[in-house]
């Protein structure tokens, strides 16, 4: 068992990480855990709130002296391991993970801008509601969360409608509605993702 390869890669990755993140005006960081059974290098960005947003984790198998990263295969509902043979593949994996992270951030910001436009568009879609509003959560007379499932008549896609009703201290009722449209193919993936991570969820806190 040798850690020489792990230490060499750890040293080189810091320089590459800085060059990758500078391109997007970001400051990338990495933390190293040598004490684990399979040592790992975690890459993250520090937010304005001093939180960490991780975008990649590399593991090292000291017995086989090889790096790898893990992903979850939703089709087979199991974790898969991808072996990285050399430093070029390792750098590329980190680079690709950072690209995915940046694209997700941009998408989230863009979604926030078009939320109101999507609401207007949704009102024009012909939906046949297959269920009534089903209460998913209720807390006294203060909070109520309901769901409703429907079908878009034109496309056959599914619609999940979430309505959050909150009563303020002044007895005003605030209603927040969210609609999520998805295809039949997406439905099985969504179900598998939720089923595989149910134990990680926390109960609603007030």
Describe the structure.
With 206 residues, the chain is α+β, with helices and mostly antiparallel strands. 33% of the residues lie in helices and 37% in strands. It has 3 helices and 10 strands. A 5-stranded antiparallel beta sheet has the order 1-2-3-4-5, with helices on one face. A hairpin with a 5-residue loop joins strand 8 and strand 9 (158-167). Helix 1 (4-22) crosses helix 2. The protein is elongated and about 60 Å long. The mean pLDDT is 79.
H-E order: HEEEEEHEEEEEH
Helix percent band = 25-40%
Global structural class: alpha+beta
Strand content: 35-45%
What is the rounded distance between the termini?
A: 50 Å
- Please state the overall shape, judged from the principal axes of the Cα atoms: elongated
- Low-confidence segments, given as residue ranges, are none
Strand order of the largest sheet: 1-2-3-4-5
Total beta strands: 10
Give the mean pLDDT.
79
Rg from alpha-carbon coordinates: 23 Å
Largest sheet: 5 strands, antiparallel
Count of DSSP helices?
A: 3
């Amino acid at each position: 068992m040798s850690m020489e390869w792990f230490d060499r890669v750890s040293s080189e990755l810091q320089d590459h990480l800085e060059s990758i993140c500078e391109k997007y005006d970001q400051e990338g960081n990495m933390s190293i855990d040598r004490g684990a059974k399979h040592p790992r290098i975690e890459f993250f960005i520090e937010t304005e709130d001093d939180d960490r947003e991780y975008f990649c984790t590399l593991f090292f198998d000291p017995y086989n002296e090889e790096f790898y990263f893990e992903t979850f295969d939703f089709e087979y509902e199991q974790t898969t391991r991808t072996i990285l043979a050399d430093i070029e593949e390792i750098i590329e994996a980190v680079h690709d993970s950072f690209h995915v992270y940046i694209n997700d951030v941009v998408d989230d910001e863009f979604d926030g801008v078009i939320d109101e436009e999507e609401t207007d568009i949704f009102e024009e879609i012909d939906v046949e509601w297959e269920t009534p509003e089903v209460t998913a959560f209720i807390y006294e007379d203060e909070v109520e969360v309901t769901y409703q499932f429907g079908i878009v008549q034109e496309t056959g896609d599914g619609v999940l409608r979430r309505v959050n009703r909150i009563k303020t201290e002044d007895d005003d009722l605030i209603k927040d509605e969210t609609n999520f449209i998805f295809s039949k193919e997406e439905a099985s993936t969504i179900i598998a993702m939720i089923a595989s991570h149910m134990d990680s969820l926390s109960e609603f806190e007030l």
